[in-house]
Every structure is written in structure tokens, then in C-alpha cells.
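ok trying this again, last paste got cut off
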Amino acid sequence: MICPQCGAENPDNAQFCTLCAAKLEPLLPESAPGERRRVSAGEWRGEDLLVTRPSKAVQKKMVAFRVKLTVASILVAAVVAWLVLSLTVWANPSPSKVSSKLIEALNDRSRADFASLFREEERASAESMYEGLIRELGAAGAYRDVKFRVVKPDNYTAYAHLESGSVTLGDGTVVNIQSSDNLVVYLESHGGKWYARTLQTRLLP
């Protein structure tokens, strides 16, 4: 055994160098050809590591699994996007939807629903508008089959024109709604949500 410190020759079973007294590492026993020697804990021998390649059947299964995982990820992303879009639309009705809800509130005789479609600071005047409209409509008055045409001059204002349908007044008179009647709901967008405004809104001929 050669001392790594001073290069002196030492017996194979020596633990210390006979010349410089440096500690000697014992030699690892050689393995016979074709024999796999047991590797002790903490010992690293690269030649004792075996790297095996998966069989073709296993490789096919792995590829199929990756494809399924990719498809599943795409489907999940699509569902999440649809939910986000749906919730956004439901939470922020369009000008046409808000206008339709105004008509529904009048037909249902719901002051609270009518006023809720206006901003907080305008709800008192909205309730006054509601009372005036209900007086005109009477007990049996109602709107029927109202269609709107929405015009948006910009991203923050909209006019929902009543284009067709009919309204029954308190005296029983049925009035067919025409675009020339200039019936309209004026709306403004605040915080991404549309609100009706009493200003410029006209719902009866």
C-alpha cells in the first residue's frame, strides 16, 4: 500500500504509514469477474449503479398519461375561464338587462326592486318616479313584450330605447310602443356596473 502523504511503501494491512505515521485507508477488496460486490453504507461506486430503460409498453403508457394530463389541464382552464366570465356577466348586467328589470319591477309593483337599479344617492328620486308611473299604470296596467335598442355614446353612458311592445294604462287603454315615442332608459356605468338614472328616463308615452 502506497502512502498518499509521503509515497512510502507499506504493508497492505497497515493502518498508519511506517514512515510519516499518516493514516492509511484500507484497500477495497476486488470483486471477481461477473460478481456484484455488496456496497457498504455511504460508499459510492459508479459501476454498481444500473440504469434501466422502461419497456416500450411502459413508455406508451407514460405518453398516454401525459396526453390525458394535458387535456385535463386544458379542460380545467376552460371551465375556470367560463365560470369567471359567467360570474362577471351575472354580476354586471348589461344596459338592456337593467332596463328590462325596470319594466319587470313596474309590472311586479316592486318599489324596492325598481329603486335598487339606481345608485344609492338617487334612490329617493327613483321611488318618486316609481310612484308616478304606478299612478299612470293603475292597478291593472302593465308592459308587454318590450324590446330595447341600446345606444352607447361611450363606455360610461347608454340609452336603452323602447322600440316595440305595448303598455296598458290605468283607464284600460293599450298603447303600442313605437320608436317615435322616444321612450328611453338613461344609464351610467359606475365601477363596472350599470345603473339607471332618473335624468332623461321616460317610460310612458
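PB: full thing came through this time. The beta strands are 142-151, 157-168, 174-176, 184-190, 193-202.
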